[in-house]
């Protein structure tokens, strides 16, 4: 359900806030005109042709005024399930949260998975501590158009590079592929840079608007003065002609 909602546009459901509607019951209505690909090859072909502007990056019934994006000490949260505890890094999916997507902290989270079995030790206190010390993105960090899915230009290059690395063929047993260098991203700085740029952009637009208004006023005054000068010239011509007569 979640994937299908992302893979098609349905603007009439996009409210970006919680309300009293039951969106589980409305799911069939939301996808009634959507025909999903049939079979593995069809899905591969469909996803390869899918463009960013054909994706619904956010879910209309998901409130975006305040979202959790990391804990106070690390860039992921622990999600407790019936069979395992899985690490979840919201900063990797900021577009789905209506935020500007920057390069996330690059780390292998597979070793953070905790499989649950009768003898497993559940770090309940650790999970609770992390959730009690979450960091939030406030409403003023939202992008102007949540459906657009804005990204940092460097993110596209990073994603393509990461996709290539993770999908390249495994090396021969006698060769060991060198480990990837950990990528440290100043996440908060990028967000703040983006917000600061938006504020400067608004100031620039306001300045341009004021300058255009001043230019229009100057042009109007010049035209008015030219008309007055032309009127005065014609008056003097008429007076001279009257004196000669």
TrEMBL record:
Organism expressing this protein natively: Nicotiana sylvestris
Ranges in coiled-coil conformation: 194-221
Encoding gene (name): LOC104245016
UniProt keyword Coiled coil, yes or no: yes
Keywords tagged on the record: Coiled coil
Lineage: Eukaryota, Viridiplantae, Streptophyta, Embryophyta, Tracheophyta
Name this polypeptide is given: Uncharacterized protein LOC104245016
